[in-house]
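Hi all, posting the design record for the shared folder.

TITLE: backbone redesign
STEP: 1 of 1
STRUCTURE INPUT:
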């Protein structure tokens, strides 16, 4: 939609000052203007109970951060400083303005689903930031380094898993060699994120095991494009995948009975650590009904029975690992708004 520049920038400022504002990105150069910076990112931050607008200006070499009083004229001055492309995201809408060479403003609006986060130091908030290059390679983020709405749940699941991986490794000396296997690795998102994150501290070799040859091909390309070394994918069923010299086993949403195959793999290998997030509970193995029937009201309500059977399945999976010499805890690793399959079975070999 064509607007005057004044109208488009006034709306941009109003959106930044609203209390559903999430972030703004200013890039490109308007004809005849020379903004001092290549890019400016704005976002709300809460400091000592007051919401300010944090500006991070990038000149091609360094970032310059300032916290601006929203009631001052600074926000409008930034918008007027000569950028050609402006994106302003709220929790529900993305407002985009492009100022053309003819000095016309083309404005557009699309739907998004974002959370407004007011913590001061955003880098601490996510283990791998949204604009990390691997998320672009995986197709999770757009060209501005923002995670797309369609990938946000997966991004948060991965972030939460990375948070759990780190404290589990405190007994392993930094710089040690680690061999990680990600069972049922799918399109490689978790595999690549864990590999990238742990490579900062350890000498890591990572193998993704996946039985779907198309996904193996795709994941191999993603690994190559990511420029990370020491990561590869093999086409194999979990039951027949090589088990030698493994330190950490991951299995995120390995479907059908693959979660049980992953537990067999953990027990048979010499893995020290297992992080397993079960998926659909097709496995209703021996003893599951018996455990669920221990609940006196079992058998009365279909949905309650289903959930009891699911929980009994996961409790028995944890027990199998315990009996095989692991210390086990079962935790909710991410809120159920991000995935209904949100229990993590964590096992550390005793
Ligand atoms: C829901 S996806 C999860 C992928 C990935 N772990 C993630 O969380 O993004 C399940 C994957 O498990 C793979 N899979 C299922 N059973 C398997 C088995 N027995 N051996 C290897 N891969 C298996 C499927 O091909 C599919 O790619």
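Okay, here is what came back for every position:
SEQUENCE:
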């Amino acid at each position: 939609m064509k607007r005057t520049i004044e109208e488009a920038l006034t709306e941009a400022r109003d959106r930044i000052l609203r209390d559903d504002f999430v972030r703004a990105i200013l890039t490109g150069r308007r004809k005849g203007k020379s903004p001092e910076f290549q890019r400016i990112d704005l976002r709300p931050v809460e400091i000592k109970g007051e919401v300010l607008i944090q500006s991070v200006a990038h000149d091609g070499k360094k970032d310059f951060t300032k916290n601006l009083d929203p009631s001052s004229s600074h926000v409008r001055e930034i918008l007027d400083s000569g950028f050609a492309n402006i994106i302003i995201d709220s929790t529900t809408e993305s407002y985009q303005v492009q100022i053309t060479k003819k000095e016309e403003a083309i404005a557009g609006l699309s739907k998004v689903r974002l959370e407004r986060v007011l913590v001061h130091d955003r880098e601490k908030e996510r283990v791998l930031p949204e604009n990390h290059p691997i998320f672009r390679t995986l197709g999770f983020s757009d060209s501005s380094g923002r995670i797309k709405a369609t990938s946000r749940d997966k991004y948060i699941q991965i972030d939460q898993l990375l948070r759990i991986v780190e404290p589990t490794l405190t007994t392993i000396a930094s710089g040690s060699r680690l061999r990680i296997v990600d069972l049922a690795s799918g399109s490689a998102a978790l595999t690549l994120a864990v590999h990238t994150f742990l490579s900062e501290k350890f000498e890591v070799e990572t193998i993704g095991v996946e039985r779907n040859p198309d996904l193996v091909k795709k994941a191999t390309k993603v690994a190559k494009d990511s420029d990370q070394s020491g990561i590869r994918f093999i086409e194999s069923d979990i039951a027949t995948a090589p088990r030698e010299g493994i330190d950490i086993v991951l299995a995120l949403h390995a479907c059908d009975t693959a979660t049980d195959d992953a537990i067999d793999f953990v027990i048979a290998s010499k893995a020290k650590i297992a992080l397993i997030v079960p998926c659909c509970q097709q496995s209703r193995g021996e003893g599951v009904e018996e455990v669920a029937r221990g609940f006196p009201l079992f058998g009365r309500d279909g949905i309650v029975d289903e959930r009891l059977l699911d929980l009994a399945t996961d409790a028995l999976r944890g027990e199998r690992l315990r009996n095989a010499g692991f210390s086990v805890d079962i935790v909710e690793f991410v809120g159920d708004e991000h995935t209904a399959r949100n229990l993590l079975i964590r096992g550390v070999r005793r």
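COMMENT: Residues 184-186, 189-190, 209-212, 215, 237-238, 252-256, 258, 261, 279 surround S-adenosylmethionine (CB under 6 Å).
Let me know if anyone wants the other runs.
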